[in-house]
Amino acid sequence: MRVAFSRRRLAARVGELGREISRDYADRTIDVVIVLENSFLFAADLVREISSPVVCHFVRSEMRDVHLGGHDRREIFFSAAPGLGGRDVLVVDAVLNTGVTQDFLLKRLEEGRPRSLRLAVLFDKAAGRRVNVQPEYTGFATASKYWVGYGLGGVRGLFRNLPYIAAQKAQQRAAGRIRRKSAKR
Fold first, then answer.
1. Whole-prediction pTM value?
2. Where do the domains of the chain lie?
3. Which of 99, 104, 116, 139 is geometrically suited to a Cys-Cys bond with 131, CB 3.0 to 4.6 A?
4. Read out DSSP for 16-30?
C-alpha cells in the first residue's frame, strides 16, 4: 500500500476544519451526528478540535435487499435518529461518494426540524456523485480510490488502525473478495 495522507497531514487538515466549524457555530452547542463505522477516528479527532460545546450522537447505516410487490430493491436503514428539533446539527462522515446514504440521512434529520443542518466529510469523491449533496466542510477532495487507514476499513475491515490513509491495491481487494466467496461456500 502507498501512503497518500500522512498522520501529520491528516492532523493539520482536521485542525483547520475544527477551527472553521468553531468559528461558524460561534460557541453554540453543536449536536454532532457521527456515521459509523468508517468515520469514528475522523470524528473523534474533529470533535476534539472544535471549541464550541459538542454533544455526540452515533448512527449506523445498513443496506438491505428488500422484495416488495414482485420487485427487488436495495434500501437504506439507519439506527434510530436522535431527536434534534431546534438544535444545530453537524453530520460527520468519512467519505462522500455517491451521496445516496448522506442524502437519505440528511433528509431524515431535516424532518426533525433542526435549527441548522450541515455535513462534514473527510473525503469528497465528487466524481461518483449520484445525488446533489454538497458538504459544508471537506477535508480533502479526492479521486475515487479505495482508501484504508484512519478508521477506513479495507477488506473485512482490515487496516482501520493505520494512523495514515493509504490506497489499497486492487489485487488486495480482489484477494479479499475471493476469500470471502470461498468462505461462504
1. 0.84
2. 8-145
3. 99
4. HHHHHHHHHHTT--E
SS3 for 78? strand
At 65-119, the pLDDT tens digits run: 556 666 655 555 666 667 899 999 999 999 999 998 899 899 989 999 999 999 9
List phi, psi (to 5°) of 133: -125, 125
Burial 52-72 (b: 16+ CB within 10 A, else e): bebeebebebeeeeeeeeeee
Between β-strands 116-124 and 2-5, what pairing exists: parallel, antiparallel or unpaired? unpaired
Pick the CATH number of 8-145 from 1.10.540.10, 3.40.250.10, 3.40.50.2020, 1.10.10.2840: 3.40.50.2020
